[in-house]
């Protein structure tokens, strides 16, 4: 069983045993994850669910969790065929969990077991059962270090191959349809925050008034960033919103975003009616800060009202922003900074130009080929 737990003003998720008491070893790891490594509450929720599955499997198979690292292959098979409820699915049936979900569960289990070894709660032998060590002697010379020293790397032993599906993005027509379907200025501003500034859902509902610097010069606010922009800052928020990156970033704001904010402000002021609330996005009926679930409900309503033939999620608008930045000629490092990615590899998934640009590229090759073989025409 998984439940909320609270330490001071911050919350995290933990695992309960059959007597509704925290499983001490799992709870110690989840507290370390939340307060020692500054992970989001949502991360502890995901990890707690994964550990609950692992401990359930250990109990069903009569294994102690500290001795189960050598049998993670069997755990993977169990995850693929044992649904959350009901009997296990036999050969030929659809898998109960996809490759990505299984790998996420395994990552949580590896983190838990590695923490247990570091804390002396489990034997060090576990690490050799979780990871295999290799060196760079089998790599091409171009990929080895320039100093000639041997480098050792670790790779997880248990991992499924995930399908390489392209990032699903909202089209420009879908974004426009959502804007037209919005009946409130707040919903239009929310759509543009995701589509024109590339914010994550949690970053959008975590915005405070002090983060909005839509003036041409914000030096009077003590901000040295030039031009209209907004700041994305990680905080512990009462609505559960959380900026993924520990590092704050600023995102330039265009004319449409600023205009939509100006149109939304009277709605917001009428909703809070003097309440002490500095969140930018609020529930219009009560003035309370918008939560993540409310954002999903807004998008479900907008998609239905717009008559779209598929459900466009908030993150698909962020994907559209990242792709549009690169399609417009933006450099990879520019898109990385705007999206708040720690690694360029996270941004590279947006390098999937639409079919029209691919057709133009082929046409340019054909034109260059004709010029090479026949010479330039006059």
Describe the structure concisely.
47% of the residues lie in helices and 8% in strands. The protein is mainly α. The model has no long low-confidence stretch (mean pLDDT 86).
Set down the secondary structure blueprint.
Elements: E1 2-7, E2 10-15, H1 24-36, H2 41-60, H3 72-81, H4 99-118, H5 125-130, E3 131-135, E4 152-156, H6 172-181, H7 185-196, H8 201-205, E5 212-213, E6 229-232, E7 249-252, H9 255-272, H10 292-306, H11 314-327, H12 332-339, H13 344-348, H14 355-374
Helix pairs in contact: 1-2, 1-4, 2-4, 6-7, 6-10, 7-9, 7-11, 11-12
CATH topology of the largest domain: hpI Integrase, Chain A
CATH class of the largest domain: Mainly Alpha
Q: Give the CATH architecture of the largest domain.
A: Orthogonal Bundle
Quote the beta fraction.
5-15%
What is the terminal-to-terminal distance?
77 Å
Look at the structure and give the mean pLDDT: 86
Helix content: 40-55%
Shape summary: globular
**For the largest beta sheet, what order do the strands appear in spatially?**
5-6-7
Whole-number radius of gyration? Answer: 25 Å
Structural class: mainly alpha
Helix/strand order: EEHHHHHEEHHHEEEHHHHHH
CATH H-level homologous superfamily name of the largest domain: Intergrase catalytic core
Biggest sheet details: 3 strands, antiparallel
How many domains? The number is 2
* Unreliably modeled segments: none
